[in-house]
Amino acid sequence: MDSQCVSILPRVCGVLLVSGSSLPDDTSLEKLLDWFTTIAQTGTSLLEACPCLVDFVSKVAFDYTSGSSILSFTLKLTGLIGASEDGFKVLKECSVLKLVFNPQHWQEAGLWEDPCLRIGWIQGLKMILKHSEALSFFAQADLIEPLLQLQTDSSLFVASAANQTLAQVLVLCQSPSSVGHNGSKNRDLEHNSLSMESTQNYSGIITKVSDYLNKSVVLKEISQLPGSQQILRLLAMLLVRVGPPLRDTLLLAVINSLEELVSTSCSQLTVPLLDVILAANSGLRDDCVPKQRLIRLLWVMLNMKKPVDVMQAAAAVLRSHQSDPALSAHSARVLLLPLDIVTGVSLLDENSTEEELRILITEQLKRKSCISMICLCLSNIPQITLMASDCLPCPQRLIVTAILLLLRLCCVDSSSSSAGCVEVVRFITGNSKVQKCALEALLVLSKSPGVKMVLVEVFKVLTEYLNSHSSDPSVLQKSYQAVIKWVGVCPDLSCITDQLREGFIQAVRKRACDTRWEARDSTVEFLGHLVGAPSCWAFTEQEMEPSDVLLGGRSFTVPLLKEALQDPESYVRASSISALAQTLTPSWQDGTALTQEQEDIVTQLQEVLFQDSEGFARRAAVKYFIAWFSACSSPSSCWLLMQSVPTVLSQGVADLDWEVKLHTLELAELVLDRAFSDPSPSHPYAVMSDQDHRLPIAGQQSDLLSSLKNLVDWGVVSALLCGVVDCDRPVALKACQLLLKLRGIVCPVMDNTADTRVFCQLAGASMMQQVRKIQEMGKDTCVVSEACSEADKEGICASVDPECVSVCEVLRVLDLDEKLSILTQSSDHIYNSPLSLLQDILTAAAASSPPGQDPRQELVMDCY
Amino acid sequence: MKLYCLSGHPTLPCNVLKFKSTTIMLDCGLDTTSVLNFLPLPLVHSPRLSKLPGWVSKDGSLNLEKRELLDLSTIDVILISNYHCMMALPYITEHTGFTGTVYATEPTLQIGRLLMEELVNFMERVPKAQSATCWKNKEIQRMLPGPLKDAVDVWTWKRCYSMQEVNSALSKVQLVGYSQKVELFGAVQVSPLSSGYSLGSSNWVIQSHHEKVSYVSGSSLLTTHPQPMDQSSLKNSDVLILTGLTQMPTANPDGMLGEFCSNLAMTIRAGGNVLVPCYSSGVIYDLLECLYQFIESANLGTTPFYFISPVANSSLEFSQIFAEWLCHNKQTKVYLPEPPFPHAELIQTNKLKHYPSIHGDFSSEFRQPCVVFTGHPSLRFGDVVHFMELWGKSSLNTVIFTEPDFSYLDALAPYQPLAMKCVYCPIDTRLNFHQVSKLLKEVQPLHVVCPEQYTQPPLTQSHRSDLMLELQPPPMPYRRCSVLNLPFRRRYERVYILPELANSLVPSEVKPGVSVATVSAVLQSKDNKHTLQSVPKAPPVAPSKKRKRVMEEPPVTMAPKPLLSGAVPLEAFLATLQKHGITEVKVEETADGHILHLQAEDTLIQLEEDGTHIVCDNNEPLRATLRDLVLRFLQKL
């Protein structure tokens, strides 16, 4: 810990003790506590590091006059100190502990009403409960009673913290073996868990908790609903966190009450109740008695009166991946019922037990609330598809058919009608929420077995959606995703007829000209994504890319994307650039000859980089070149690419947008890596042959020299030097790392005579100045002019340019390591340091002290 | 009150309302769908069209709604709601004996005139040597081929009117402004309200002192160029006649506008031409405005837009001068040095060019690819015929239909086979069912009358129960030729009292807040206005001996008998009788009051709630005494 902090801390404690003294801002106490926590976490004893804290704690405890925030802070701090066994002892010895954690003490002082104090008490208690000593203190002081009272506190924060603390108490009360079995991740707990004999002593606590839960779970009046919900949430959490024997005890204690609660069938409690039952159920063996009762409870919930409750129960059962097959099968049937009713596709065979529910749901579907019910049904279809096929009420193909029909019913233009519930049509027609949910479900169902035969139908519906004038842009996007998903899983696209294809192409072409930019953006993105879809078999029985089959390949896509480069909306321009990169990647990989089209694109992209007013497009342009460079097997042989790189680097690094600059540096990194890996293409970990080792230094030097020259020619070095003095920290950091990398490769091999042969230009006056300044600080001699004159003699550097610097010289002179260490620190590291925090507290206290004592007070007045 | 329904077309209505001795025609729309039965009239000879199998001799091709239901000469006034709903006006006002007045707003009249001129121009520039009517005979028609055989009411199809008839008909129009009140014969007051559909479009309120009928024709709640709809003035209507809802309930105008733009851009980018068959006023302003914003963003800056119509220039110019009829946004532009509609800028920058016809300047300046707006949307006459012939063969070109009045497939029939792409983007900004049900909830009329088409879902989408009017009480549907008795009875009439007469009244309070006075007056009814005047005093008979003839005696003005009010209290009355020596009284209680039997006098006094009878035989003094005693307790008015 900083010695300066240690010296200031007693004064800070003094300031905090003076009640009413103002703090710089209301988070400073939190920050202080965070700092203490970090100290404690590093393993150093908090008391050893800051001995003044005990004094502070005891002073506050005996003096009520401190403000509630200071009291709350003190309570938490006490917990933090007491969390270590040593600290606990010290606190116990000075009898602070008993006083601080005695609710009676605060009640008498009239401070208990303040939720701020209660939360401090609970969090302090939670922190202290890390070891057996603390637990026995907890038991002896009989703190379980007040803790239980706080479980349903009026303040939600207090109640929630109390729930957490109670769970912690119970976990501590468990026998050590069970803690291990429960897989507790808290090492402290495992380490400190209690011995067998002491466990017996805490049965009182467990009994009290069980009694409390049993009593509170039952809902006596409707006004107690929030409390009841809170208790159920607590119960669910406890059941998840505690291990088997204790969990069984708790479960047995409450199961009667749970049964009673289920029978009240109160809608608001359905979800929390389900959470409890499913939490309890998840870890139980199949043959134990509570398990049977829980399963029965779930059955009761699946047969409640209100259809919405039943559907929610069914959804929860499916989500929890129940082991009971009958239960899952029934839940799936319940969830599919609305779809069955709306579309009239008989997904479910006749089952008399569901008749009543069917009538109820049909009634519900005639109201506007049908939307949420249908969406609930659709959003759970992914769970249904995960079920074993023998549990499914119908083949998945039939579900796809029903969803397709639903999608048709939702489409404004469609005139198809269903054999199902007619009244619902008015609500779902044109409803984009239902459309999106249905498309989402369709997306998931693409993986189902045996659905390939409906591909044509799917394709027709999706084309209809893409064509529809009333489709919301988000619906269009989902439709595009569905096309890609379905095309991706169907290896055989021969069923797509020319007519279907033509319709699809028309729709895509139209959407590319849509008036809404979101629609254009999705279309452009789709064109890019389609390239990535796996290959398929087309009607010609040849393996083809899906984009070739559906859209006729690049001859269709590229012109469309080139149009989009001119789009008024920057997002669309950016998307079209990335889509172009995706489209062209295969040809780059194959090393196909460049076309005029590609040259045009490069010209356009350079224009974007130079002129586009929006960062998105410029970022995408740089990424295009990154993609090209990384896809290209031998970039140096692609003249267009190598011609563009210097322009991109020089322009990109001078951009106003820091992300553009960062991407430019990524490109520089690629070029750098490629430049030095080229001569020895072996794997970095490959065994080097003896010959490699024996390579004469001169040979290495000349290779490096030529690579370095290339880098300079391509503008990589200038870009890095420009980046390292950038005012955006991430950019400077990246450039610094790359320069270090370069230095690591170049400098060990180069000697002083060689390095002067490679120069680079420094673009921009400010950059030059900065580099110069660093240079001069590092070395007083004028390296550059010397180097240049020497180089001039050798005829390498043709002109004496004051903007020229020797690369190796610069690499050596710049204190890159120091720069790196500065840059790796976050930009607010000074502002956020503990010292600054402590000083702030002191300054604020001084500023608020009575006038006359502090001359600064007048100053403040003057300023005002 | 009766409503005669002369048109079955819900958006081209023609109804006649008989209300308080006035006969008011509400709109006279012209259903021109019958032209689809004819071959296109090309301006330039088309070998292809002339080779098509057709019926050689033909009539003009316009349709007049049935009118035998009613004698058109009895119509007092015609109220026009928008320029699309006045196209049949010459058929009503000319050669029918019509002597009434037509009321319309100024833009309606001017733009309506343009549309009529255009129609006449389109027809007259391709004159037909002969006309035939015999085929309309049922016997012959039955033998005709194809759809012609099944066409109904062919006998109503008429030749197109002439310019002279148009001028004569329009000379009968009297201009009105929004909310201006026009008295019709003192019986009713009519007043147009902004309906938000097109320039100068209006709904009408027809009201007497105690009754109100609202007529809602093409209205729109969307923010387009016209002034927004005035809804609040429609409140408290006894009857609301609802016509002119959207013809495309499932096509959202915004979505359609988007479709229009994207299809247009798609075609132009591919190097094709776009043809937009449209009317020369109305939606075209919105289309041009939308394109004005769109062409920049879609990089269509260099593509020329042509608007070809005999009235193109006037239509574009007129729209700019009707500032008071525009939406607020555009009205404010009038105070800036820029025109309300952006098409002016398109014209200035040469992006939009307009020509009266394809002859002349256009043919020399024409440059492809381009976008052409021209009429007529039926594709049967007008310059559009030429462009269909010119561009129909190339699949690069697109025809985009924006007017919902004609079935685009029927319109395209004579041009088949067609390589050109066809896009149907009907833009109808009129109220949809959702909007109308909200409007009616707001306005709360007692009864709604509407075309029967609105009371059931469309035939093609019978499952869409949301595409119909559902009201409580259910709306009264009408169809062509129905006569409806509107379901309300007139119960009150307003009568005026002249000041001097009112001054002479002596009201007396019968119970707190209610005063009564008797009036003797002469009721004068003139121009449906009723006035009470004081009775003229008999002129003092001049003592003149020269009088030869005895003047007819002026009506004897006897002072009217006073009216009595109040009740006779039994106890007090008995006491008074006793005071007057009548002691032997037997009181009998009856259902309505009491009967007093004066036994000594053998007289009965019946005291009832609404009358008092004294039954005494041959004892006039006693009767008079008793009468006076009863009158003591009553109040005289």
UniProtKB/TrEMBL annotation, chain B:
The keyword Acetylation does not apply. This is Integrator complex subunit 9. Residues 284-412 form the Beta-Casp domain. It holds the Pfam family IntS9_C. Belongs to the metallo-beta-lactamase superfamily. RNA-metabolizing metallo-beta-lactamase-like family. INTS9 subfamily. Signal peptide: none annotated. GO terms for biological process: negative regulation of transmembrane receptor protein serine/threonine kinase signaling pathway; regulation of cellular response to growth factor stimulus; RNA polymerase II transcription initiation surveillance; snRNA 3'-end processing. It comes from the Eukaryota. GO terms for cellular component: cytosol; INTAC complex; integrator complex. Residues 529-553 are annotated as: Disordered. Keywords: Cytoplasm, Nucleus. Transmembrane segments: none annotated. It is found in: Cytoplasm; Nucleus.
